Predict the structure.
Amino acid sequence: MENFYSLSPDKIRGLLEKQGFSQVHFKAVYQYFYQDNADRDKLLQNLPKELIRHLESEYTFAPIAIAKELQSKYDSSVKFLLRLADGELVESVLMPERARITLCISSQVGCRQACSFCHTGRMGLKRNLSAGEIVGQIVTANQWLKDHPPWLQAVRLTESQRVSNVVFMGMGEPLDNVPELVDALKIMVSPQGLSLAPRRITVSTAGHLDGLKKLVSENLGVGIALSLHIPDAKERSRIMPINRRYPLEEVLTYLRDAQTTKNRHFLIQYTVIAGVNDSLAHAEKLAHLLKGIKVKVNLIPLNSFDATSFKQPDPDDLYAFQGLLLRSGIRSMIRFSKGQDIDAACGQLAITSQ
C-alpha cells in the first residue's frame, strides 16, 4: 500500500478527481492527517464515507517507527533512529532553539557522494527515500513532541510547539532525489499540510548542479545551502568526488545567475578541517570565489567520528579564517553543531549496524 504522506497537493487533487469526489474535500483530507490541532471529528463528519473507505483501503498512515532515541546531555537535542517499512534505517535530529524547533532530516538511506570527511558518505547509497518517508520524519517528530511535554518544558518551549524549521542536512544528497524531494517540499509548505514557511526550510547540496537547477525552477522559495568546504578545485575533487562531475566554478556561476535573475539568496556551508582547508590562503581563495555573490558563510568546525583521521581546527585558526572573510565583506558565522555527544552533529549521521 502507498504511504499517504507521499501524496503532494497535486496528487491529492488528482486522486479526488479520479475517484469522482469534489475538490471541496481537498482541504479537509489534508488537514485531518497533517494538523494535530484540527477539529478532526468535525472534519471527519464533512468527508464522504466512500472517500474515507477508499483512503483507508489504499493508503497507510502510520508514522515512521522510532527504533531508538538518544538525547544529548549538553543541549537536549534528540537523535532518532527510524525504521522504515522495508527495515532500512535512517536518522533524524530534533534540535531545540529559542522559540523554535529545528528538525534535521534525511533524504536517502546512505549517500553516493562519498565526501571523505562525512560519516554518511562511507555507507554508500542504499536507496532514495520516498516523499512519504521524508515527510514522515516530520510527522513522527511532531507526534513525539506531542507525547513528550516534559521535554518541551525542559527546553522552555510551550507544549503546543511543533517542528517549525527543517534542514535537509541529514543522511544523503537531497538533489540526487529531486522528484521525491519536490513532492515532500510541496507537502511541507502547503497551508493544509505541514504549513511550514518556505524560508524556514533549507535544502543542502554538495553541488549537484543538475538537481540545483531543477529545484530552483520549482520556485518553492525554500532556502538552499551549498556545502562548499574547500575552494581549490583539485583539493575539492580529492575530498568531494562530486566536484569532478560538477566543478565548483560552474556551480558558483549558476548561483550568480540565479541570484540576478531570480533574486535568490544562498547559504554557504564550510566544514573547517585542521591542515586541510583552514589556512588563510584557503580563506583568501574562498573570498575571491564568492566575490559578487550575496551569501552568508557558515563555518562549521569538523565533527569527528571514529573512522576518520581528520581533526578539528585550532580555535585561533578558525577565528582568523572568519576574520579574513569579514574583512573581505563576506558575512560569516561560526556554527558549533548540536548533539555532538550522541553522534548527531553535521557529518556524523551513519548506520553502522542494525
In short: The CA atoms of residues 111 and 155 lie 32 Å apart. The domain at 2-60 is CATH 1.10.150 (DNA polymerase; domain 1). The chain has 13 helices and 14 strands.
